[in-house]
Write a structure and sequence with these properties.
Elements lengths: L4 H21 L4 H4 L3 H7 L7 E5 L5 H8 L3 E6 L2 H10 L4 E4 L12 E6 L9 H11 E9 L2 E4 L3
Parallel strand pairs: 1-2, 1-4, 2-3, 4-5
Antiparallel strand pairs: 5-6
Helix pairs in contact: 1-5
The structure holds S-adenosylmethionine.
Amino acid sequence: MPSNVADHLYRDFEHAGWERASPFYAGSFEAITSLFARQLLDAVGAGPGTKLLDVACGSGYMAAMAAQFGAQVEAVDFSPSMVDAATTHYPALSFRVADAEALPFADNTFDAVVIGFGVHHFAFPLRALAESHRVLRAGGAWGSPCGRPSASI
Ligand SMILES: C[S@@+](CC[C@H](N)C(=O)[O-])C[C@H]1O[C@@H](n2cnc3c(N)ncnc32)[C@H](O)[C@@H]1O
């Protein structure tokens, strides 16, 4: 996958920005991004027993909603302070620090992968999409409000 210095600078810029924004995210942007969560989770069929991964989970509200629907949820974000905030809000859920471009999960692990308003923040979006595909089982569902939710890939 091609990369260059500008891409890495973009990643560092994003990372520093989200580290700073994390204490305020739940009280600001979440009010807007969360409006899409129900539709996105419905689009990927999140329900009882669904093994679902929330990539770039931010403050964790979508992971929490999926868990309310009965899904078995894992959620990752590359900002440690964002993961801390999500863990504080939803201590019963599993949040971990991980980059969308190098997911710490085995191939074919999940029934559904969602990325809520994350793709346009990734320095290497194609690498992140390939990673989502790798951890998704055959016939699984992928969805993002920044791209057309698909029934399967
Ligand atoms: C606009 S917020 C979206 C948060 C949440 N998904 C939502 O819908 O509100 C973007 C999130 O992407 C995360 N992020 C950006 N680049 C990332 C990467 N390469 N890997 C994992 N998370 C990343 C940021 O830390 C931030 O929490």
